[in-house]
Write a structure and sequence with these properties.
Layout lengths: L1 E4 L2 E7 L4 E7 L6 H16 L1 H6 L10 E2 L4 E2 L2 E2 L6 E2 L7 H15 L7 H28 L7 H5 L8 H10 L18 H10 L11 H28 L3 H11 L5
Amino acid sequence: ISTSQTAGLKWNIGLQPRRGDGQVYSSKFIIDQNAERELRNYLEPIVGRRQAEELSVRKISINPGYRQEFWHRNCVAVGLSAGFVEPLEASALVLVEFAAKMIADQLPANRDVMAISAKRFNEKFTYHWQQIIDFLKLHYVLNQRDDNAYWHLNRLAESIPESLQDSMNLWRFQPPWLQDTPHFDELFPAASYQFVLYGMGFITNPMPIPKRAANGDVDRANQLLNENAKKTSQLLATLPSNRELIDKINEFGFSKI
């Protein structure tokens, strides 16, 4: 669960034996002591005032960004050595798997072709990191908070990458779809952008339906929406909650397919 704070985000990650709580914030907009106070105030209704005050807090400074070059000669930066932006989506975790797979698939047969493999790797992961930045920035661009400068400044056009600005201009008239993600190994498919956009109130105004097809299309759309709502209700009635599922997996492991 991510919750916006004065100059950043508070997160709560429910694990089996415990819960992980933290807060990422910009030191340009809030001092360390006030950020820590926000965190303790958030925890007080959950763990009680005394425990919230006694909990030890560890400060981890973040220098956000990613390398200009990930593969250099016979060394490849993977994981945190390659870059880090912020923990909102934990997107960098999947890059570890992506990097390991690409290294295994593209490991040079000899020294002569290593530069080619390195060039492809660097181009691919520069693209991945830029996509992470765009996807994270989308959360901030869509925010509606007006109570402090941090959230207001994150909506300013000059703070938005050109690639994200182009996409948002397009999404005003058509929803994110397959052609918005040109690579086969995208970190975020079109559905990921849809969840964030429409979950945060973004509005797409598609082109009007031609009159001769309007009635039939609308009827068909309503039929599909009703069928989807019915199917959703059926699944919700039979599926366990997220916590129940995690407890079952923890006790019995994954079932064989």
